[in-house]
């Protein structure tokens, strides 16, 4: 495989999923309430907060040239207006470790979790959230900007739209947000109490204020998310003009069965075109893709093709989706970084096959003149997968959760070798 000079070869993590003990965040609280919809709490996670130096050194040893990770807002600002100097210095150390090992850091400033205090104010339905998020970004970039060449403001800014559609598919309500139930936020917590009520009580707020980023799909919430991006971009540029700024979007390869063409196009418009105005002025677009979704004539996702290979997440094994999505996303006119692409499986040979096939698609995009500048595998480590706990294994590196011992999988060596061969070719 041949890729252009300077192409970034990376892997990705998110703070809450790997660092451990993110106690000031909304998710930490909700993981521990009675009747929690989380399969298990995150706990120590992968102890990456302590072991980041070893992990970054391992990536460099394997041949990777980039590392995408998130700075945790709840650590930097654990209470409204209070900035933790210890957290700032910790992330300075993480960034410096990247540079010391020749790893280009790509930082995400919000990856699903938010400070618990923000949720008490109303979370991602609170009118002041964009300003508060921008202020946090300004603080981070004022302190650390010279060490951050690439900043993603919000991870998967469109994720609530995808969640809404998934629930609509499950319930047969193709109309989307207006007809889709809140789902996990409405399940019984035991004792006749609604899980949303229990969670709100634990966060010292009301159920109406329990507006988590992952489930913010009202028009007000979506407008606030896009405004948070544009205001954060402005703050980042003012504090660190040399930092390239973008957003990441979760993009399925929506394919139409006969009669489903209009509905498939609507899904793409909802998940991608809706965000085009907010992306005007961005330096790049982060594309995140894992599979395809086939849309039937009724406007709902169809069952997987008979005999299709499925991942641990229930996705179809379909690495070809990445090429299709990159081609469509490139119409935004921005350089593309593939900020997440991967597979949850306990069969590492299938992970290696997935990566090879996905990269062949990227290579074809490049051959056709599409401006793709990096590939980042999700994820670096077997980590905490949100509501599903530690069941799904996306990582190229296994983690023994009792000892925190890392074990490199062959797929990591495969991707690292591809990166190394291209680096030699560039030289």
Automatic annotation (TrEMBL):
Q: What is its EC number?
A: 3.2.1.21
Matches recorded under PROSITE patterns: GLYCOSYL_HYDROL_F1_1
Q: Which organism is it from?
A: Yinghuangia aomiensis
Report what the protein is called: beta-glucosidase
Q: Enzyme group, top EC level?
A: hydrolase
Identify which residues the record assigns to the active site: 340
Q: Does the keyword Hydrolase apply?
A: yes
InterPro entries xrefs = GH, Glyco_hydro_1, Glyco_hydro_1_AS
One Pfam entry for this protein is Glyco_hydro_1
Q: Which UniProt keywords apply?
A: Glycosidase, Hydrolase
Q: Which family does it belong to?
A: Belongs to the glycosyl hydrolase 1 family.
């Amino acid at each position: 495989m041949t890729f252009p000079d300077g192409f970034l070869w990376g892997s990705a993590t998110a703070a809450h999923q790997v660092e451990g003990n993110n106690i000031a965040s909304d998710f930490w609280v909700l993981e521990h309430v009675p009747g929690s919809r989380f399969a298990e709490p995150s706990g120590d996670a992968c102890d990456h907060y302590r072991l980041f130096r070893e992990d970054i050194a391992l990536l460099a040893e394997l041949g990777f040239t980039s590392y995408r990770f998130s700075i945790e807002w709840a650590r930097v600002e654990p209470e409204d207006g209070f900035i933790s100097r210890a957290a700032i210095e910790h992330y300075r150390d993480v960034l410096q470790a990247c540079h010391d090992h020749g790893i280009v850091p790509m930082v995400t400033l919000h990856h699903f979790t938010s400070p618990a205090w923000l949720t008490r104010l109303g979370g991602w339905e609170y009118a002041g959230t964009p300003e508060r998020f921008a202020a946090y970004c300004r603080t981070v970039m004022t302190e650390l900007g010279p060490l951050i060449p690439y900043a993603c403001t919000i991870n998967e800014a469109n994720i609530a739209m995808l969640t809404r559609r998934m629930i609509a598919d499950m319930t047969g309500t193709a109309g989307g947000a207006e007809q889709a139930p809140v789902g996990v936020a409405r399940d019984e917590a035991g004792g006749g109490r609604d899980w949303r009520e229990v969670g709100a009580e634990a966060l010292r707020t009301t159920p109406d204020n329990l507006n988590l980023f992952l489930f913010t799909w009202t028009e007000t919430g979506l407008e606030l998310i896009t405004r948070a991006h544009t205001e954060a971009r402005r703050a980042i540029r003012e504090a660190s003009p040399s930092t390239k700024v973008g957003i990441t979007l979760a993009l399925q390869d929506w394919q139409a069965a006969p009669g489903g063409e209009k509905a498939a196009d609507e899904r793409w418009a909802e998940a991608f075109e809706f965000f085009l105005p907010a992306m005007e002025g961005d330096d790049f677009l982060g594309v995140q893709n894992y599979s395809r979704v086939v849309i039937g004539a009724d406007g709902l996702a169809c069952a997987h093709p008979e005999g299709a290979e499925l991942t641990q997440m229930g996705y179809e094994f379909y690495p070809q989706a990445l090429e299709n999505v990159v081609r469509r996303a490139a119409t935004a006119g921005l350089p593309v970084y593939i900020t997440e692409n991967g597979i949850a499986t306990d069969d590492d040979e299938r992970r290696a096959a997935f990566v090879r096939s996905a990269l062949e698609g990227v290579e074809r995009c490049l051959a056709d003149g599409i401006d793709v500048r990096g590939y980042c595998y999700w994820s670096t480590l077997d980590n905490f997968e949100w509501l599903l706990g530690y069941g799904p294994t996306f990582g190229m590196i296994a983690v023994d959760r009792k000892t925190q011992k890392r074990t490199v999988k062959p797929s990591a060596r495969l991707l690292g070798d591809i990166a190394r061969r291209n680096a030699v070719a560039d030289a």
